[in-house]
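User: My collaborator sent over this chain with a note saying "see what the structure looks like." That's all I know about it. Can you take a look?
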Amino acid sequence: MEGYNIALVGATGMVGRTFLKVLAERKFPIANLYAFASERSAGQTVRCGDREVVVEALDENSFDRDIDIALFSAGAGISKKFAPIAKSKGVIVVDNSSAWRMDKEIPLVVPEVNPDDAFSHDGIIANPNCSTIQCMLPLRALQQRYGLERVIYNTYQSVSGSGVKGVKDLEEGTTDCYPYPIQNNCLPHIDVFLENGYTKEEQKMIDETRKILGVEDLPITATAVRIPVASAHSVSINVTLKEDFELDEVKQILSDFPNLILKDNPEKLEYPMPIDAAGHDEVWVGRIRRDDSFERTLNLWVVADNIRKGAASNTVQIAELLITREPLKRDM
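Assistant: Without extra context I'll predict from the sequence alone. Here is the result:
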């Protein structure tokens, strides 16, 4: 049968099930599909298009078969343990956890932004944090033309970023996931607090942006906020450029960038919102305006589906890169 042998780790989770949906939608060429999860999920069935797959319990022997690419989304601990095992069996791992993102030997990839980095892999490729991914498209577009001098992020992140428990807290008014109610509220607190006063989510955005854009000393600051929205993250980006700009040119540059949708017409109240991005793989940008308080500085509003582009779709796009530009052992 034509295609590649694909494994999914964390197949029954929110991102894992979106992997299955995206693979089917994008008609990824699959010969055999293997689904792995915890022992409690073993025996369940998951569906990828017309294909139904029985979930297996993940263990040290799971990759003792012919697998080309494994898509991981089961947490950093699982990735740290099992990705090296898969790699040792000749499997290319594309990992959606935080386990490998800042490892200097492992590429951190957004396909529209730094596709060539994917081919420096030694068996493992990291998928960035969801809030980082959507910011990379407009920032790379601006970087290529003007250069970047400083970036300020303020995020407004949906509860689906916390998984099913976050969605439950929003829908039912519980506090099983968050320390305070998320209904009718917002929490300036995503992930754990670090000694420097930033949260881990904020530090991820800072560190990952520098790595992906290839500017180790780029000044960046971030504040990450959880809001009572079910799906899609929004980010306000204030960016100072190395060269001055005209707004019309900026809008054209952003509009021309792959998978970046410009929605920017204040006169008609047209701007990106979570309901625009939910269920889609593109990134939306709008509210583009000059920051009159500081020279060569822009304000942007960027929205994307955090489960799709922020996780599953970006991971599948990396796998597509691999089979398109670096044919694997299986002939098409």
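A starting point for your reply to your collaborator: The mean pLDDT is 96.
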